[in-house]
Design brief:
CATH superfamily of the largest domain: Chorismate lyase-like
Structural class: alpha+beta
Order of helices and strands: HHHEEEEHEEHEHEEE
Number of domains: 2
Largest sheet: 6 strands, antiparallel
Strand content: 25-35%
Shape: elongated
Number of strands: 10
Radius of gyration: 22 Å
CATH architecture of the largest domain: 3-Layer(aba) Sandwich
Length: 255
């Protein structure tokens, strides 16, 4: 990692330093390798440690670096591809081994969940919580909402809670014929519970992917998956079925 003259550069020093560090990450470091400490890096590039920290924070935000407690700053693995196309329609749990079921509970849904499911709000809803793990790191957390009427056979399964109950709900869903999916993607901020599971600070930028599963013209399940924006990227499959909408939640038009 060589030195560079930063004094004559018109853009902010930390931004130019970020570019220099990016080149070094591509040419000199391997995934998982630990970077030299801040004092050494600041001396090598002739910048203040505050400038260096700004550059490192930007690279962390962009998913190039990871700060691991007790380890230091390491080179991050490539971003995880999140397929948001609807060309390949499958039930959750059918083929996505990266997701790990964590918990399952049942309760009357909140008003927001009832709207998501196009339900009346009185029927109990099973809530499956799953975590997506890549390279040993949690990169996404999902809440899958399944009305009790969508999985009537679940009542005969003796698995009251936990991962076993979650897997049972996923298996029962696969008994239905999936007609289609509706999917939306938004940029959001990590809630406290998701932030804890994803090892991020509350309010950190995340990608929120909301999916409705349709059978017989009705919504039989819906999921809200929260992805770390620093480690994930969106992909659109072969169909490229990207649609840009100016509708806000609730069907209102953006002004």
């Amino acid at each position: 990692m060589g030195t560079t003259q930063l004094e004559s550069v018109p853009e902010p020093k930390y931004w130019h330093l970020k570019t220099v560090l990016t080149d070094a990450l591509d040419s000199e470091f391997a995934v998982g390798e630990i970077l030299p400490n801040e004092r050494e890096l600041a001396a090598r590039f002739g910048v203040a440690r505050a400038t260096l920290r700004q550059a490192l924070e930007q690279l962390e935000l962009e998913g190039r670096l990871q700060r691991r407690r007790g380890v230091g700053t390491t080179v991050a693995p490539p971003r995880v591809g999140v397929d948001v196309s609807t060309s390949q329609q499958t039930w959750p749990g059918a083929s996505d081994d990266a997701w790990q079921p964590v918990e399952c509970g049942s309760a009357v849904p909140s008003a927001a969940v009832a709207r998501l499911l196009d339900a009346n709000g009185e029927e109990p809803v099973h809530t499956v919580r799953r975590i997506r793990v890549t390279h040993g790191q949690s990169v996404a957390a999902e809440l899958l909402y399944v009305p009790a009427g969508s999985v009537p056979g679940l009542s005969a399964i003796d698995a009251p809670s936990g991962p076993a109950r979650a897997r049972a709900v996923l298996r029962e869903l696969q008994h239905l014929d999936l007609d289609g999916q509706d999917r939306a993607v938004e940029l959001g901020s990590a809630r406290a519970d998701d932030a804890k599971e994803l090892d991020r600070l509350p309010g950190a930028p995340v990608l929120v992917v909301t999916t409705r599963y349709i059978t017989g013209g009705r919504t039989v399940a819906a999921s809200v998956a929260t992805y770390r924006a620093d480690t994930c990227r969106l992909t659109f499959g072969d169909s490229g079925d990207l649609e840009i909408s100016d509708e806000l939640p609730g069907g209102k038009k953006a002004s």
